Amino acid sequence: MCIDFIIQFIVAMIATLGFAIVFTAPKAELLFCGLSGAIGWIFYSVIATVLEAPTLGNVVGALFLTVFSRSLAVNRKNPVTIYLITGIFPLVPGAGIYYTSYYLIMNDMDMFSSYGLSTIKTAGAIVMGIILGMAFPQSWFNKVFAPSCHKS
């Protein structure tokens, strides 16, 4: 099971890196963008698998992704959105959105409702995790993660 999580971490990092390249994140930040996506995904994956709670996994994954992104933003002196927007990529319920649309077009209202509710739950959980991560005062991040300036 542990090797599965390692593989998932690496794949999520590569996928997020690709997403960051497509959306022209600064070249110097690509590795950090990839890490943010991998961190969010691994927290989601562990909780969804071990606790069998995918919605909670999305909340926790988005929370840790947001905290990590805010930490990077302070340390690297960049906007948090560089890391947060690219890092959210693995958590976004793309298949759920696709199948919700597909079943709506096919007029299968039972499947449309099922996929639609699941997709809304996932999206809501991600939003909740981001809100929780943004609730921490900026001063905490500035104190802990700001690069220290030493005067000679």
Question: How is the topology of this model organized?
Answer:
Elements: H1 2-22, H2 30-50, H3 54-76, H4 80-87, H5 94-105, H6 109-134, H7 138-145
Helix pairs in contact: 1-2, 2-3, 2-4, 3-4, 3-6, 3-7, 5-6
Features:
152 residues; mainly alpha; 7 helices; globular
Question: Please, could you describe this protein's structure?
Answer:
This protein has 152 residues and is an all-alpha fold. The protein has one domain (2-91, 125-145). Helices cover 78% and strands 0% of the residues. The protein contains 7 helices and no strands. It has helices at residues 2-22, 30-50, 54-76, 80-87, 94-105, 109-134, 138-145. α3 packs parallel to α6 (109-134). The longest helix is centred in the last third of the chain and has 26 residues, at 109-134. The radius of gyration is 17 Å and the shape is globular. The termini are far apart. The model has no long low-confidence stretch (mean pLDDT 94).
